[in-house]
Amino acid sequence: MFSFFKSHQEESLNSGRVMALMNQKGGVGKTTMAFNLAHAYAHEGKKVLCIDMDPQANFSSLFQIPKSDDRKNIHHLLINSIKELKALHTPTFINDVLIKSSEGIDLIPSGQELSGFELTVAGINAPRQLILKKFIEKYELRSQYDVIIIDGPPTLGLLVVNILCAADGVLYPFVPDRFSEQGLKNILQVVSDIEEMEITSTPKNLGYIPNLFDTRRKQAATDLEQIKVTLGEATMHEAFTNKVQFGKSLAQGKSVFQYKSSEYKDLQRQFVAMAQAVQQELNS
Ligand SMILES: Nc1ncnc2c1ncn2[C@@H]1O[C@H](COP(=O)(O)OP(=O)(O)OP(=O)(O)O)[C@@H](O)[C@H]1O
Ligand SMILES: [Mg+2]
Question: Residue 211: which CATH number?
Fold first, then answer.
């Protein structure tokens, strides 16, 4: 069928790629993976922008931001980018919100207000699914960053649709047990609904990330094999086991790359390999 929109490949040639970490299920490692991948890219000298699209704001809390009650966040930026709503809200510009870190990683934080996003935009005439995509275009963020990493919420709704419409590709972390399949199927269904709507190109599947893989549980390997069969062709990245290093590092707002000790070496290797595979897939 004739398509009015440019493919992501055409659109983003010579410009930053947008990837998102998604799964409707909570606690599967979306934020942990997003944060460490951001550092893996920064480690390679890439300029990275992180966008927290989860009202829980866990991603934002990993960045050592001084506390402030009136800090503006992604919600205010998105609302301000909609012409019909702009006049009703206090003007907010990207420089009021963007947090710059010394490691070459910038952050657009989230906040509780984002949980009201769906209601706030309910009555607008502009396409509600494309607000984040248009925001990224408006501020020409692709030309300022090599990689843009979006952390998604554990829900299915307008926020998720906006992320999927804005991303060039999606990574799906999951815990390989028998409950995980449905969560993955649900989010993949939203991707295919977007494809059918034909309002924008659909994001590439950048692969699944088995996380908190329990090597001691025999059934875990069988479950993972079965899930692989169900999920079909997309890449299955190397599984992450339960690692105390994640708890330790995240509690200090640090990535695995900020440690020199040998117990972090394997995790560093794993994130570098995944970052490279994802980059290759996004460029292909
Ligand atoms: N491989 C791992 N080993 C040990 N702890 C882990 C591992 N992966 C994630 N965790 C821990 O599990 C918890 C949940 O991880 P995380 O917040 O990344 O999940 P999430 O999918 O983003 O959750 P939510 O859907 O609520 O946003 C965190 O405390 C994190 O430190
Ligand atoms: Mg999270």
Answer: 3.40.50.300
2 inside domain: no
Percentage above 90 pLDDT, the chain: 75
Q: In the predicted model, is pLDDT for residue 9 greater than 70?
A: no
- When divided into structural domains, the chain yields a total of 1
Distance 145 CA to ligand 1 centre (A): 26
Q: Best mutation site among 22, 30, 32, 255 for ligand 1, i.e. most ligand atoms within 8 A of its Cβ? A: 32
Identify whether 13 is part of a domain. no
What is the residue with the minimal CA distance to atom 15 of ligand 1?
29
Q: Report yes or no: 147 and 19 within 8 Å, Cβ to Cβ.
A: yes
Q: From residue 225, give the alpha-carbon distance in Å to each of 168, 206, 210, 228.
A: 28, 19, 11, 5
265: containing domain: 18-283
pLDDT digits (tens, 9 = 90+) for 94-109: 999 999 987 889 999 9
Using CA atoms, how far apart are residues 109 and 128, in angstroms rounded to an integer? 21
Classify residue 198: in a domain, yes or no.
Answer: yes
Q: Do 210 and 236 contact (CB within 8 A), yes or no?
A: yes
What CA–CA distances, in Å, run from 240 to 16, 173, 190, 244?
27, 10, 26, 12
Any ligand 1 atom below 6 A from CB of 211:
yes
State if residue 31 touches ligand 1 by the CB under 6 angstroms criterion.
yes
